[in-house]
């Protein structure tokens, strides 16, 4: 896999807090204190992205491997073709992917970074930390809440989702949110690390509503497969097929 990104704590952090992370690794140990990290994404961003990681916010406050993979993929493959496209990130956590895209890709409309209410202060802090207030907007979105979708761009062309597969009871809510958000021209770049057999049930569930293609170009596919990291592109199925599948799924 690509060489590791160095993650550098802020000046108030002790040297023992330094660690390295790559696409294939989760943090090597628990970090109990909030830390400011820097990401170059293997040299794709200069100056590096700064990101506040705050474990007190739970899983969403950490940097996870699928976010690294998706960020690098977008920077490598889509740095020049996002002009004129509306972008929304789901389950953004710290905002890693959206902030990387805002910094390293050509965009001309704000990226909406969504998560539950407890995560919004961390997202907003990271937006300010990278001076991206004009390019990135933090927005509240609980999966399954169709009313909240009205605050986001209707049928955005690009949806980003990294490590959103971790809690099986939320799978139907995530599918419902994707179904309500995606239009005929929408593409969802969906990356996750399989940690348990149940994680693949999300893909099985999503296939009833979306056309799903696994991505092998633009990532180190062999290394990702070894680490059980998968990147998919989701698109809406043609309308008749979708109606039949949604009906069969609900019965």
Automatic annotation (TrEMBL):
Protein purpose: S-adenosyl-L-methionine-dependent protein-lysine N-methyltransferase that methylates elongation factor 1-alpha.
Name of the protein: Protein-lysine N-methyltransferase EFM6
GO CC annotations on file: cytosol
Enzyme Commission number(s) from the entry: 2.1.1.-
Subcellular location(s) per record: Cytoplasm
GO biological process: methylation
Keyword match Iron: no
Keyword rRNA-binding carried by entry: no
GO MF annotation: an example: protein-lysine N-methyltransferase activity
Organism: Coccidioides posadasii RMSCC 3488
One Pfam family here: Methyltransf_16
Leading EC class: transferase
InterPro entries in UniProt: EFM6, Methyltransf_16, SAM-dependent_MTases_sf
Highest taxon of the lineage: Eukaryota
Family indicated by similarity: Belongs to the class I-like SAM-binding methyltransferase superfamily. METTL21 family. EFM6 subfamily.
Binding-site residues for S-adenosyl-L-methionine, renumbered to this chain: 64, 91-93, 115, 143, 162
SUPFAM superfamilies: S-adenosyl-L-methionine-dependent methyltransferases (SSF53335)
Keywords: Cytoplasm, Methyltransferase, S-adenosyl-L-methionine, Transferase
